[in-house]
């Protein structure tokens, strides 16, 4: 009589691999998301003071620069910064309420759409490689809805985000961008309204505290000697929980709002406890995607990707491999000021 030998079923190798990776990395992923606070620093008014501005080029590349289009050294700075991989913004002059000397080609609310279009096109030519725009001065222009709507109409033809410098409380920038494809960011902290090292240092600390509280913050400074000295000392030695990023990184949906991110994580954890077998639904898809793409073994990466694409509860396919779809939906959220939160568990 032949004795039947017990043979354990061989589990699917891709599934086993996925399970191992998830169990190993999941605590790390949650820890990173819960701790990271992102800080963007932009230096405005670049193009006039080469000596000070060259110091920015020696800082980490995440420190971004906003260049005045009609400045004498703007183009040269744009080229040098671009070679470093540094993010560049067009620092577009806009009319202030107070009387003060104005840059050439300063936008006024009464200008026609054609005039504004010509000035922006000209600025794009003069500041090559720019990915965003922010306002120089602009208390009169940015508080004028119809004026800013004309700006947004023009910007929607280019792939530029708009960083509102917030030079007036009654800014209409976000409202003007609604219904367009222009993503909008807002400045939180000015580093050097008072040009002393002590004050600038204090403002950096405020920006860090705000980043921790909100998950992200944007600080704007200028090429003053005091600002440069303080940044040289502080930027390279930021606290470990602060991630220095370029402004466009804050257009990314994950962790742009720490509260939202934490809320989603808490909901996902609750769902995970309710149904442990649906573990694939509770992870941060973006983190897993990044993990999959950085796995050294190409076969492992493919197996993981295939599994994710087949598994119920997956995000749409373009979320796994195509950034453009995600960017579009984020742009819509940004312009509408929508922050999606949900208490319900993900369904298949
Ligand atoms: Zn400025």
Automatic annotation (TrEMBL):
Pfam families: Polysacc_deac_2. Residues 331-342 have a biased composition (Basic and acidic residues). GO terms for biological process: carbohydrate metabolic process. Residues 307-348 are annotated as: Disordered. InterPro entries: Divergent_DAC, Glyco_hydro/deAcase_b/a-brl. It comes from the Bacteria. This is Divergent polysaccharide deacetylase. It comes from Xenorhabdus szentirmaii DSM 16338.
